[in-house]
Every structure is written in C-alpha cells, then in structure tokens.
Write a structure and sequence with these properties.
The complex is a heterodimer of chains A (346) and B (673). Chain A is flat. A two-stranded parallel ribbon of chain A has the order 1-2. In chain A, 18% of the residues are buried. Chain A has three domains: 148 residues, 3-Layer(aba) Sandwich (Rossmann fold), CATH 3.40.50; 62 residues, no CATH class; 111 residues, no CATH class. With 346 residues, chain A is mostly helical. Helix content of chain A is 55%, strand content 3%. Chain A has 17 helices and two strands. In chain B, the strands form two sheets. A five-stranded parallel beta sheet of chain B has the order 2-3-4-1-5. In chain B, helix 14 packs across helix 18. Among the domains of chain B are: 197 residues, 3-Layer(aba) Sandwich (Rossmann fold); 86 residues, no CATH class. Chain B has 673 residues and is mainly alpha-helical. Classes of the chains: A mainly alpha (346), B mainly alpha (673). At the A-B interface, helix 8, helix 10, helix 12 and helix 16 of A face helix 9, strand 5, helix 12 and helix 25 of B.
C-alpha cells in the first residue's frame, strides 16, 4: 500500500485530489509547477490534507506553512516563512528571535537563497490565501513570480558569459598572463563584472556597443556618457508636475490652508489644533500613505497658486497636461504622481 | 461631389462652412493703390519664403548628423553579425535604435517623417506605427505589413514598372487557389520578402525592414511585448530593425517592458534635437542674423521666446508664430513695401509713395525725433514737413542707414558674445537669445546696460594672453563679414594691429622663459633681476596696449549697439505689436466656452437675442437650449435636483408663449435631454 492509498483511506472521497497533489510534488528534487492553487468550499479538508501530505513527504525545512490570517503583514509573513525554512522556532533559548529580519520581497529572495543549501524544491504554503488580497497590492504578484525571481536565468548567464569571456581571455591572448593563473584572470575581469551587471543586465548598453567599447570603458566612465539621463521640460511644465505631486500627496481639505494666499490667523490656529489631535490618534501622515487620485481641476488650481507670477490659462497649458498624461509616467515607483493623474481621468 | 455639397442645407452651425472674403485689404482708409498692395503681398511672399528656406535648412542640418547615424545603424544592423557568431549569444537580438526625440510631442510627426524618408531613399522598407492606429496586435501587424509592402512597391515602381505589376499578378493568382493569407499574417511578409529579394535581387540586398514606433510611451506594453517577440522569431528570415521614439528617458523602457522582452533587443541610442541648442541656433539664424525685411521688436520677441521656453518647447509653433508676425507686418503696415529695397528698386518704389504715405511717414515717432534733432535749422524742418518731394528723396538714405546700422549692430553684438564666452566668469555667460533680449530691452542701447559695462570692466582686468585670444577671435569673425560691411575696414585694421602687438609681446616673454630654464642658478639670479627691470617697462607697455584695446571695444559698442528705436523710420522694419499674436495663438478654451454659453449672442449675433444688450444675465427663451440650461445651472447651488432643473427650463421656455403640457412634453423632454 503506497502513501496515496493510505491517505485515501484516511480521507475518503479525496483520492483523486490526493494523487494529483502527490504527482505534482513528485520527488523532493523534482521541479514542480510554480504555483499550485487549491480551491474549494470551507471545511472540505484542504488544509488538513495538505498539511498531512507535506509533513509525511518532505522534511520540515523544505516547506513553510503560513496562515495568512495569522501573518497579516508582509514582514510577519516573510519572517514566519524564513523561520520555517531555516528550521528555527523562536523560543526561550534563542531569546524569542526570528531567524532574520525581513521586510520586503527582495530581501526575502536574498534570504531564501541563503538557507537554500541543497537542490531540493522548497514549498511556501499559504493557507487562507484570500487574505493576501488585503495586503499590499504588489505582494500577491510578487509571490506568484517567486520562482522566476529566485531562480537564475540560464539564458542571461550565457549572455553575460559570452560577452565577458573574450575579455577574460584577452590577457592570455596578449601573453601577459598564463592560462592557469585563474586568480589573476578573475581579478582582471572583476571591474568588468560590475559594469556588466550595471549596464548589460539592464540593456543600458547593447551587446554591440559592449563589444565596441569594452576596451574603452576600462579606464574611464564612458559608460556614463553613453547613458545620459536627462530630460528637458519647459518651465511651466515643471510647475505642473510639482502641482500634480502636491495634489496627489496632500489631502484636499488642507488645500485651502496651504495654497490660498491670504489666510486669517485664527483659522490656521484652530486647524493646527485639530492636526495635533490627529497625530495623537496615531494615524499615519497622509504623505506616507502614497499618492491619491485627484481631479484635474484641483491640480490646475494648485498650479496657478504655486506659480510665482500670474499667467493666463491658455491652450498651451492644457497641451502640456496632455503630454504629461501620455508620456511622463515617471520611472521611480515612489514618485508615481502621474499614475494617479491618469487614474483621475478614468 | 459638388452637387451633393451644393444641396447640403447647412442647417447646423457645426456643419456649415463660412467663408468670409475680406475683399482687397486696402489700407489708409481704402485709398491705397493696387500697386503698393500687390507689392506688399509680393514682399511678404519673398521674405517669408526666404525665411522659411533658412529655417528648413537649419532644422535639417541640426538633425542631419543624428539622422545619418540612424541610417548607418540600420544599414549595418545585420552586417556585423559575424562578430557575434563566434560568441553565440543565447538571444536572437533585434537591432533597435532608441531615438530620444525630446518632450515636445507635436513636432515628432515631422521629425519621424524626415527619418522615414531618408531611410526610404536608402532603399529600406519603412513602416511607421503610431499608438493611435495600433489598438490591438492584429491591426498593428496589419498596419506594419501593409506599410512595409507598400513602401517597397513605390520604390519598385520608380525603378521598373513591370516588375511591380508582376507582383500583383502573383498575389492575385495565389488568392484563387487555397485560402488566402489574412492581411495580418507574418507569413505573408516573410513570403513576400523572400520572393522580392532572395530570387529577384540575387541575395544582394542591403535593404532592411524598419519598424518605427513613434510614440513609445503611449503604446500598450503588452502589445509591444508580443510584437517584439513575433519579430524576433522571424529574425532569421526577415531583417527587421526597430526604431523606437522615446520622449522621456531610457527608464521608461525598463519600466514598461519586462526583462524577457528587453533581452530580445540590441539597443543603441540616438538623440535628436536638444531643445536648447535647436532654439539657440534658430534664434541666431532667423532673428538675430537675418537682416532683410522684417525684424522683431521687443514685445514680439519676448512673447515668442517666452512661449517657447516656458510653455511648450515647440519649434513648429515658434515658426508659425513667426510667420504670423511677418504676415501681419506686411498686411497691416502700409509702409512695409519699403522695408526690403535695394538701390535699383528704390526709385521705382518711391514713385508709388502717395501723399498719404508720406503723411504716415511724418506721423511716425522716429520721424518726429529726427525732426526734433533738426530743430535749430528751421528751414530744414519746414522742408521736411511740407515738401513731399524733398522727403521722398530722403527716404533711400534712411533705409540705407538702417541697413548699415543692422550690419554693424550684428558685428558688435557678436563681439560681445565672443568676449563674454571667453571671459573666465560663469556669472557673465549668457545665451545669445538672452543677450539679444537685453539689447532690445535697453532703450538707451546695450552699451549703457550694466551687463556690458561689467563685461568691459572684466575685459580691463585680463592679461595679454587672454586679450590676444579675444582679439584674434573677433578678428576672425570680422574677416568673414568684412566683404559685406566695408564701413568696418578701419576697425578690422585696428584689430589686426592689436593682434600683432599682443602676440609680439607674448613671444618675447616666452623666449625669456626658455632662456632662463637653460641657465644655471647663479646666472638665473642675475638674469631675473634684469628681467624684473625689463618687466617693468614691459608691463607699462602692456597696460597701455590693453587700455587701447578696451578703449577700442568700448567705442565700437557705443557707436554700434544703439537701440533700434533711435534709428529713423525703424517702423518700416521692426514689428512691434504683440496683442494680435497673443489673440491668435493663446487660445483660451475655457473662457471661450464660458462666453459662448453665457453670452451666446457674442458669437451668434442673431437678431432675436441682440435686442436687449443691457441685461446680459437675463435668461431669454430665444437662446440656445444649452445656454439656458447652463445659466440655470449657475443659478442653482452645488446640488441640482434634476426635476427642478427641468421645471425651471420649461418655465423659461414658457416665457415665449405657453406650451401645452401634453403637446409639448415629449419634444421638450427630448430637447432637455
């Protein structure tokens, strides 16, 4: 009697699901599908069966069982998972410490690699995964792509290797170094490695440019001149961008206080008081909550009030707004004022 | 076609087309002669076409280098693959040119057309994709294939007509048997390409299939991903080259496309048209240097510069504003036909000057200044004001003087530009357009401005070496222009003289140092004492010389950098009004809409609403429904009850005459909605 049949006896009526799962998991060294989605109504035995299968099939450090209700923040989730992968339970002996502190996906991936000592597959089991939707909007996609993020891209490695290898060989060909002096050769290639990771990986410089310039890059910062990142924008458009930023990060109710030029002293005093009360409530500041969408009229109103001089609202301004909407989606994700602008249009 | 158009009832404003024929725009209360009118038109056309040519060639030149390098890249995109074969890259990289074209999107169309045309002339097939035409993959590929095959057909036709026809036959035959390939199937393109080149051209083809993605930022990234993937699959069969136009920076590329797509592209960067350089070149070429016909005065120059720098960075809008200014100058200024005359034409044109023209000349402020300057000579003044023939005979002199002034001004202006560039003072460095703006602004002449004064001050502090460099640079500049301006020969010879003296001083010093280096220490001491004594005499010489040089420049600036308004009859050439330009180019859509809704008779001028001009705010039943609704909307507060709105609307309409509820309700509701 094999394992599947044993389980089927324990959980009658679930034999097909059990065998499918076991097939999908296979041997510990096998690659499995990146995401397995187990779906069903409550109390049908999903959690129980999965727990049973994993405890029986795999050793404890090869899977992490996370209850998403329990781990309601990202860092909780990652730290719980890492503890389990590393085989550490916070206890009196270790001063109730996590294996490591971990706040975001990038760090999670780095740590994951650290504790990934063998070739066996690792499983991250998320129970009550519907709660993931309430967390940060980037978490779920990141977790879905986890295999792709943590795995090394063979093609990319080959690409970098094929471009770097000729440079590695260069000293040998020139006769300055011996074929067996690996250490020296590696040291020689070091500087190119950094450059390659910076520029080639992002395709900031193409392979042909790399071949042409590799020798020149060596002694100067040619790479920088190749990728000058400057964007020239008309004067008022800069103000429009600032206005967009202000509109997306400032709560509308404070607009009057910040942007109306003649203000009565009393009003501001009272408002300041209410502001204090707000702080004591422990609410995070608006600016930290990320950009919000806003009507375009509001942005224009702020724009006219922050300008040092008065100008007429001509068609040119509207053209610039249009251009910003279509083109200037800024790259820094912390600075996505324009994304919110677009939201406001929709 | 014409019949259909004639039958069109034009029952709506938006459909109708109103052509207002102004008749002949004769000036001077309609008494202007037809000849001068036609001359003004001719002058306008001549001036503008000349200007336009200069602008066009300038813009073409600015981008020439980058366009050429793009063409080179496209042509060589597949030639250097031999380099890669021994490397054996895991990716099939598509050659891709990233074209950074600046933030000013409206001008891109022209730019990319220019690129496409140049590429086609070099025998490449080009397809230009715009995000507006490419909503999904199917029509994107459809567009691409259609354009690639079409351009090639046109190109083919030029060479040999017959082959082109053959192609069509082949295609139609294929259509009869079997099912025809859909228009958006890549196999169609692949098959066509093989047929065209592998057989007909016996493998000799430098021709690439270029896909221009003009506005990368507006494209759907998913679509581009797919397109890149498909094209890279076909890379073995089709020599595709991508040309991606980016208005912002390269980060946008990393942001929108995933790594897997980026790794399929072999990107090289090209940048077109830096707004600053381009603008400087344009202003220099067209506004500052141009000395024929019209010149811009302070207000229009400031307006044009401001809109460019502050608002849009758009060369095309700058050029159209300029054209408008030129047009208006020749359209509205009755004297403008005199603006661009040479000696031969002068006499013929002077005959056309009527008494009214001369009256207008007498009314110009610059003429008044001229007369006031003549005041001590009473006889002369009377002659100027009364004797038409005398005044007529003076005009060519005025015009020549003005032309000379412009030439000299431009030389002196460029001297200042050269000097401030070589000064070691970052705070003094100004862009050329800004310098020119200052020159227009200072009514006492640029020489009196604080800026030029401090330039001269800095010039005084310079040592001989620096001064020599400046003098030589100025001399070189002047020697290019000297044929044009014989009046400055004296200045030229002075400059040459200075340059010689300065360099001889310099040489002697150098020799001294060289000698000194070879001597022993003891000798050196002796010599250095001697040198100190010699230096003293030298330095007095130097100070005298540098004083002379600075004095020369100062005098030159004072003489030639006068303000244009000090020149008699500058009104013929300098265009100084700006309100019309603002009206024509600073459209204010919001204000216009508000006026249209609030005071519809401002635009419609119908009889029914005109009656009562005083009550603007009153809601008349004869007004357009939309206006009535808008005014009612203004009367309500923040929230509007739809039913109340409807009742109020009906109430307004009832004023004209009661409408039977039963009868009217249906059409009324219709109107309302």
């Amino acid at each position: 009697m094999n394992f599947a049949q044993e389980l089927a006896l324990l959980y009658p009526g679930r034999s097909s699901q059990i065998s499918t799962l076991i097939e999908l998991i296979g041997q510990p060294t096998d690659a499995s599908p990146p995401v397995i989605f187990v779906y069903g109504h409550s109390s049908l035995g999903k959690t129980t069966i999965i727990k049973h299968i994993f405890t029986q099939l795999l050793s404890a450090t090869h899977y992490a069982f996370i209850n998403c209700v329990e781990c309601h923040t990202e860092s909780l989730l990652f730290e719980h998972a890492l503890n389990q992968f590393a085989g550490i339970t916070p206890s009196f002996e270790n001063n109730f410490c996590n294996w490591v502190k971990c706040g975001d996906v990038n760090e999670f991936i780095v740590r994951l690699r650290e504790c990934w000592t063998d070739d066996n597959a690792r499983y991250l089991i998320l129970d009550r995964a519907e709660r993931l939707r309430d967390m940060s909007p980037t978490l779920l996609p990141a977790l879905m792509n986890l295999p792709a993020l943590s795995c090394k891209d063979l093609k990319e490695l080959r690409y970098l290797a094929s471009l770097l290898f000729p440079i590695y060989l260069l000293p040998v060909k020139e006769g300055t170094m011996n074929r067996s002096e690996h250490g020296k050769l590696a040291k020689n290639i070091q500087q190119y490695f950094k450059l390659a990771m910076d520029k080639l990986y992002l395709r900031d410089i193409s392979s042909s440019e790399w071949i042409k310039h590799a020798s020149e890059i060596e002694n100067n910062q040619n790479g920088q001149s190749l990728t000058s990142r400057r964007i020239e924008v008309p004067y008022y458009t800069k103000f429009l961008l600032i206005a967009a930023f202000l509109a997306s990060y400032n709560p509308p109710r404070l607009d009057q206080r910040y942007f109306v030029k003649s203000n009565e002293g009393r009003v501001t005093k009272r408002k300041r008081k209410s502001n204090k009360a707000e702080k004591s409530n422990g609410k995070p500041r608006q600016q930290l909550l990320g950009p919000k969408s806003f009507p375009i009229e509001r942005m224009l109103a702020i724009f006219y009030s922050i300008l040092p001089e008065r100008i007429e609202g001509t068609v040119d301004i509207h053209m610039q707004v249009n251009i910003i909407l279509n083109n200037l989606t800024f790259t820094n994700p912390n600075n996505v004022d324009n994304r919110t602008l677009r939201d406001s249009k929709v | 076609m014409s019949e259909i158009q004639a039958r069109d009832p034009f029952d709506s404003i938006t459909k109708g087309c109103f052509v207002i024929l102004p008749g002949e725009p004769r000036l001077i209360d309609g008494t202007e002669s037809v000849e001068t009118l036609k001359l003004r038109v001719k002058e306008y056309e001549r001036t503008w076409s000349e200007m336009k040519n200069r602008i066009d060639s300038l813009l073409a030149n600015i981008n020439k280098f980058s366009i050429e390098s793009i063409v080179n890249f496209v042509t060589n995109a597949y030639n250097d693959t031999s380099n890669f074969q021994n490397l054996n890259l895991p990716y099939c990289e598509l050659p891709t040119a990233l074209v950074f074209a600046g933030i000013n999107i409206p001008d891109h169309d022209v730019l990319f057309k220019q690129v496409a045309r140049t590429l086609q002339q070099n025998g490449h097939a080009v397809a230009t994709l715009r995000s507006a035409d490419c909503s999904n993959l199917k029509n994107t590929i459809g567009h691409m294939i259609e354009q690639l095959m079409n351009t090639q057909k046109d190109y083919e036709k030029d060479e040999d007509e017959d082959e082109g026809i053959d192609e069509r036959i082949v295609f139609s035959k294929r259509a009869k048997g079997g099912s025809r390939l859909p228009k958006y199937d890549m196999q169609l393109l692949a098959g066509w390409y093989e047929h065209m080149y592998q057989t007909a051209r016996c493998n000799d083809n430098g021709s690439r299939l270029v896909v221009i993605i003009q506005d990368f930022e507006c494209f759907d990234p998913k679509l581009l991903e797919d397109l890149v993937l498909i094209c890279s699959e076909y890379r073995e069969r089709l020599p595709m080259v991508f040309l991606i136009g980016i208005a912002t920076t390269i980060e946008i590329l990393h942001d929108t496309l995933p790594k897997s797509t980026l790794s399929l592209l072999r990107m090289e960067k090209f940048s077109l048209l830096q707004p600053d350089q381009c603008f400087n070149a344009l202003v220099n070429e067209v506004i500052i240097e141009e000395s024929k016909g019209i010149k811009l005065g302070l207000a229009p120059f400031k307006y044009l510069t401001d809109t460019y720098l502050l608002l849009n960075y758009s060369i095309s809008s700058y050029v159209s504003k300029l054209q408008y200014a030129v047009m208006h100058h020749y359209y509205a200024n009755p004297l403008s036909f005199l603006s661009n005359i040479n000696r031969e034409e002068a006499q013929a044109r002077l005959y056309l000057l009527t008494d009214e023209h001369l009256e207008i000349i007498r009314m110009q402020t610059s003429f008044r200044k001229f007369v006031e300057a003549c005041l001590p000579n009473y006889q002369e003044v009377v002659k100027l004001l009364k004797d038409n023939n005398y005044l007529r005979s003076l005009i060519p002199g005025f015009i020549e003087e003005m032309q000379l002034y412009q030439k000299k001004f431009s030389v002196a202006f460029n001297f200042i530009y050269i000097i401030q560039k070589s000064l070691n003072e970052p705070s003094m460095r100004k862009q050329k357009y800004y310098l020119y703006f200052m020159a227009l602004q200072e009514t006492n002449g640029l020489c009196e401005s604080d800026y030029v004064k401090s330039v001269v001050l800095h010039l005084r502090k310079l040592d001989c070496m620096k001064l020599r460099e400046i003098v030589i640079a100025c001399k070189e500049y002047l020697s290019q222009r000297i044929d044009d301006i014989i009046e400055l020969t004296e200045a030229m010879s002075l400059l040459e003289n200075f340059a010689e003296k300065l360099s001889s001083n310099d040489d002697s010093e150098c020799e001294l140092e060289r000698e000194q280096a070879m001597l022993s220490i003891g000798e050196r001491l002796v010599r250095s004492r001697a040198k100190a004594a010699r230096n003293k005499t030298n330095s007095t010489n130097d100070t005298k010389l540098s004083k002379d040089v600075v004095g020369f420049f100062e005098a030159l600036f004072r003489d030639n950098l006068r303000h244009y308004s000090s020149i008699t009859l500058h009104e013929l050439i300098y265009y100084d009004t700006v309100h019309l330009l603002k009206k024509a180019f600073n459209a204010q859509p919001r204000e216009a809409l508000q006026t249209a809704l609030g005071q519809p008779n401002h635009y419609i001028r119908c009889d029914c609403c005109l009656e009562d001009q005083s009550a603007v705010d009153e809601i008349l039943s004869t007004q357009n429904d939309t206006c009535i609704l808008y005014k009612l909307y203004l009367e309500f507060g923040r929230l509007i009850n739809l039913y109340d709105w409807f009742v109020a609307f009906k109430h307004v309409l009832d004023k004209a005459g009661p409408i039977e509820m039963n009868e009217a309700q249906y059409p009324l509701r219709n109107r309302y909605s």
